[in-house]
C-alpha cells in the first residue's frame, strides 16, 4: 500500500484529494496546522495519519514526517511565502527523506505556456518550479484549466444569474479548458499512483468549450436564459489589466482579469490533453455541472 503525504489537506481541494486517495486504498499523511480542530475531525479514518505542522516548519521536522512516503501532494494556496518559500522548503525536506516523487500545487491553466508578467500567481509557480529542476524528487505538474466552481462565483463577473447575463472578453470563439474540484482530485490521486508521470506535466480537462459554447451549456444545464454581453476585445482586456495594475494596492484588483486574458487569448490553453491516460475517470462536463448546481 502506497503512502501519500498531503499538504493543504484541510483546504477545499486538499480534502477532496485525501478522499480520492482513500477510495484507492492509499495511506494518507495529512499535514494539519496546530490548533485546526475542525481539520483534524474531518479525517475520521484510521488510515489517515494526522501530522501537525506547516510547510514552512524547519526542514528537519518535516523530514521526519516524510519518512517512508512515496509521493508528496501539495494543495496549498497563498502568496510567495507559501507557493515559493513553503513549497521549496517542503521539497528540500522530501529530498532529505528520500521521497521519489511529488505533485506541486499548480492546478490551473497552462502556466508552462505563460510568460513572466502574464499572470502574477502563475509567476509564483514558475519561480518555484525553477527550484524543482535540480531536485532528486521528480515533480509532476497537474494542469486542469479553469475551475467551473470558481467561474460560477459572482466575483468572477462571468455570469450574473440574477440579471441573466453572461459577460465575456474577446470574440468568444477561443476554446477554453474547464474542470471541477472533484475531478481534479480524482486525477491527482491517479497521477500520484502513476510512476510513469514522474518528471512530466499532466494536462487534463473535464470539458473544452468556447465561451459561446459555455454560455449555451450553462443555459441547458440550468434551464435559464443568459444574455451574452461582450465586454471588449482581447486588446481592450490587456489595456484594462495595465490600467488596474498601475493603481492597484493588491494583486487581486487585476488578477482575475489576468486569468481571463490567458483563457480568451488561448495562451493558457492545455495542449495536448492527457485524459486518455486515465480512462477510469469520467469527468463532469459543464452542462452537467450546472444541471447539478443550478436546479
TrEMBL record:
Domain of life the protein comes from: Bacteria
GO molecular function annotations of the record: oxidoreductase activity
Record-annotated NmrA-like domain positions: 2-237
InterPro entries cross-referenced by the UniProt entry: NAD(P)-bd_dom_sf (IPR036291), NmrA-like (IPR008030), NmrA/Isoflavone_reductase-like (IPR051609)
Pfam hit, one: NmrA
KW Oxidoreductase (keyword) present: yes
The entry's keywords: NADP, Oxidoreductase
Name under which the protein is recorded: NAD-dependent epimerase/dehydratase family protein
Source organism of this protein record: Nonomuraea deserti
Amino acid at each position: 500500500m502506497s503512502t501519500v503525504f498531503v499538504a493543504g489537506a484541510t483546504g477545499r481541494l486538499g480534502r477532496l484529494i485525501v478522499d480520492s486517495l482513500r477510495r484507492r486504498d492509499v495511506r494518507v499523511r495529512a499535514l494539519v496546522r496546530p490548533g485546526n480542530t475542525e481539520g483534524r475531525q474531518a479525517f475520521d479514518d484510521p488510515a489517515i495519519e494526522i501530522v501537525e505542522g506547516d510547510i514552512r516548519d524547519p526542514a528537519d521536522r518535516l523530514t521526519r514526517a516524510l519518512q517512508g512516503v512515496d509521493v508528496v501532494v501539495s494543495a496549498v494556496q497563498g502568496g510567495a511565502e507559501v507557493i515559493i518559500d513553503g513549497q521549496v522548503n517542503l521539497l528540500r525536506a522530501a529530498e532529505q527523506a528520500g521521497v521519489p516523487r511529488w505533485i506541486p500545487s499548480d492546478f490551473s491553466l497552462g502556466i508552462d505556456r505563460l510568460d513572466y508578467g502574464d499572470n502574477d500567481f502563475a509567476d509564483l509557480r514558475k519561480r518555484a518550479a525553477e527550484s524543482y529542476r535540480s531536485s532528486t524528487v521528480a515533480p509532476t505538474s497537474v494542469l486542469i484549466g479553469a475551475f467551473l466552481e470558481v467561474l460560477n462565483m459572482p466575483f468572477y463577473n462571468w455570469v450574473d444569474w440574477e440579471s441573466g447575463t453572461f459577460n465575456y472578453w474577446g470574440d468568444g470563439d477561443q476554446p477554453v479548458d474547464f474542470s471541477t474540484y472533484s475531478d481534479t482530485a480524482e486525477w491527482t490521486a491517479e497521477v500520484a499512483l502513476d510512476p510513469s508521470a514522474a518528471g512530466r506535466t499532466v494536462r487534463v480537462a473535464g470539458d473544452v468549450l468556447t465561451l459561446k459554447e459555455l454560455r449555451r451549456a450553462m443555459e441547458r444545464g440550468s434551464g435559464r436564459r443568459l444574455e451574452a454581453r461582450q465586454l471588449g476585445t482581447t486588446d481592450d482586456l490587456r489595456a484594462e489589466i495595465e490600467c488596474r495594475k498601475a493603481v492597484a494596492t493588491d494583486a487581486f484588483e487585476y488578477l482575475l482579469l489576468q486569468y481571463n486574458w490567458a483563457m480568451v487569448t488561448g495562451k493558457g490553453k492545455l495542449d495536448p490533453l492527457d485524459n486518455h491516460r486515465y480512462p477510469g475517470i469520467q469527468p463532469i462536463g459543464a452542462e452537467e455541472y450546472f444541471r447539478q448546481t443550478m436546479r
